[in-house]
Specification:
By secondary structure, this protein is an alpha/beta fold. It has a single domain, classed as Metallo-dependent phosphatases (Purple Acid Phosphatase, chain A, domain 2). The chain contains seven helices and 16 strands. The longest helix has 15 residues. The N terminus is likely disordered.
């Protein structure tokens, strides 16, 4: 399959009935491959829905409702991936008591495919994260934290490749600077490396060497900032070979994904879905076999 060009649609969660100006019905079913990407970020140990107390978020979210929605979409999807962009831990008494055990067990039951690491995932210390990792039946991905002198040495991989039908999808993760954000004793000898350099390195490797049809970055950098701080938008514009950035950290509620142009003037899709599991992100892609692939539907569902 050739390099993909993605076109953002103004539609919400429903699929669009056009592909590059042509109706989907013009293509034989066997000529198209559909991939649905579902994603979350900044779950912050929100296991139950927000209480019915008159607050703005009352009744929203909850692991059971999210699991039900994920199961329904999967049953209708030809191929799917379920991803998370970090800050799984911290925020409710469930984390204070179980220290991440319940969060990883629930995500494993939902069959997450991969996640990256957020700053709050160090809130039980690096030893605490390492202790709970055997409960996660999915990889934690990060390409710009050097864990070689820590308990996580060899346990965190920079990327993972998924095969979905004839499609090959590469997923890697990057994280925010921990110094000044997390107490030093919590992340210990973890070394922070330039996320832009690492992102470009692994995106090129996944695209050129591994021949991935789609390259996804799980980012816990944040959507955007006023200064020069690296963000998802900066990463999109200063990168090559990345097709999709699924973000976290800034708790940004996006009704639908946005598109930016990279250094090669190719489109990069950026999306993020707030926090606390109140929304489930969804991106639908159709690929023509041996031709081009396009994002023809994107939208984020409120879980209530």
């Amino acid at each position: 399959m050739q390099r993909r060009k993605f076109i953002k649609s103004v539609a919400s969660t429903s699929l669009i009935t056009s592909l590059g100006g042509f109706p989907l019905s013009a293509f034989a079913k066997e000529d198209l491959i559909k991939l649905t990407i579902l994603h979350t970020n900044d779950l912050h140990s929100r296991i139950e829905p927000f209480p019915m107390d008159g607050s703005r978020n009352e009744g929203l979210g909850g692991a059971a409702r999210r699991a039900t929605l994920i199961q329904k979409i999967r049953s209708e999807a030809e191929h799917s991936l379920l991803l998370d962009a970090g800050d799984i831990f911290q925020g409710t008494p469930y984390f204070n008591f179980f220290l991440g055990e319940l969060e990883f067990k629930l995500m494993s039951a939902m069959k997450y495919d991969a996640a990256t690491i957020g700053n709050h995932d160090f809130d039980a210390g690096i030893e605490g994260l390492a202790k709970q990792m055997p409960l996660a039946n999915f990889p934690l991905l990060n390409a710009n934290y050097d864990f070689s002198d820590t308990e996580l040495n060899g346990k965190i991989k920079p990327y993972k490749i998924f095969q979905k039908g004839d499609l090959k999808i590469g997923v890697f993760g990057v994280g925010i600077e921990l110094e000044g954000l997390v107490a030093a004793e919590m992340y210990k000898n973890t070394r922070y490396l330039d996320p832009l350099k690492k992102a470009n390195h692994y995106a090129k490797m996944l695209r050129k060497e591994e021949k991935c049809d789609l390259v996804i970055c799980l980012s816990h950098l944040g959507y955007k900032y006023r200064g020069d701080k690296i963000s998802d938008i900066v990463l999109a514009q200063q990168s090559k070979n990345i097709d999709v950035i699924i973000g976290g950290h800034t708790h940004t509620f996006m009704k639908s994904a946005e598109t930016y142009y990279n250094l090669d003037q190719k489109e990069v899709i950026v999306n993020q879905v707030g926090w606390a599991g109140m929304m489930l992100g969804r991106l639908d892609f159709y690929f023509e076999r041996n031709r081009k692939g396009k994002c023809v539907g994107c939208g984020n569902s409120l879980i209530k």
